[in-house]
Amino acid sequence: MKGKFITFEGPEGAGKTTVLEHLMRDKEMLNMAPMFTREPGGIIISEKIRSVILDKEHTEMDSRTEALLYAAARRQHLVEKVMPSIREGKHVFCDRFIDSSLAYQGYARGLGIDEVLSINQFAIDEMMPDLTIYFEIDPEIGLKRIAASDEREKNRLDLEDLTFHKRVQEGYEIVLQRFSNRIAVVQADRAIDEVVNDVKGILKKYLSN
Ligand code: TMP
Q1: What would you report as the CA-atom Rg of the chain, rounded to the nearest whole angstrom?
Q2: Start and end of every Thymidylate kinase-like domain (predicted)?
């Protein structure tokens, strides 16, 4: 039996990485034997591409270059890690995937959601997520959370201003409408335990069906 491909999306500071860290330690979740991974990254080549994309020194990076690098990292990660795990019957829990590119590069950078979808279709070859959990948060609250956290690395995209992050959120809203059949929304501006519980509830219901 094939595993499911489940992605976690949201603007900066929405807390999805923290929630995933909770799920990694959760017995009920571990019984489902999921494979946790992230984008851009998850394997050596894609982690290297990640450091090129997110390097704060690379202020000259062109938006199309950025979109292509995300798609390249995505392709390699899919082929090397995600697809083999799914074939082995594991459920893959991936921190960010194509919807990030649609919201950030397609909408916030202004490249066009359809244009970015099209270069990604080449990269993913119809391997869309089975389920996406979207962490909804006001970008102002998200950015404040990041500013207050010493642990989190500050990357090139974190340096963008609030206007950019508001556009990311608008981009996600379009993506939510377009792919409403596979996206579940959780309210992320609450205590972490409440958010973890909601996410667990969604996953348990989905994976037990
Ligand atoms: P992270 O902070 O969730 O690890 O993600 C790294 C940054 O990359 C974050 O600012 C979102 C951004 N990103 C894109 O702009 N497009 C993409 O396709 C992906 C996967 C991430």
Answers
A1: 16
A2: 8-199
Q: How far apart are CA 24 and CA 22, in angstroms?
A: 5
Distance 209 CA to ligand 1 centre (A): 31
Residues linked to residue 91 through DSSP beta bridges, in sequence order = 34
Name the one residue in this structure whose structure tokens are 């590069």.
105
pTM for this prediction: 0.97
Ligand 1 lining (C-beta closer than 6 Å): 12, 39-40, 70, 96, 100-101, 104-105, 155, 157
**Binding-site residues from annotation:** 10-17
Nearest to 186 by CA among 23, 4, 2, 3: 23
Residue pair 91/4 in contact by the 8 Å Cβ criterion: yes
- Report the C-alpha gap between 52 and 61 in whole angstroms: 10
Q: Which domains does the chain have, with CATH numbers?
A: 5-208 (3.40.50.300)
What is the rounded CA–CA span in Å between residue 127 and residue 6? 11
Joined together, the tokens standing for residue 68 give: 């292509």
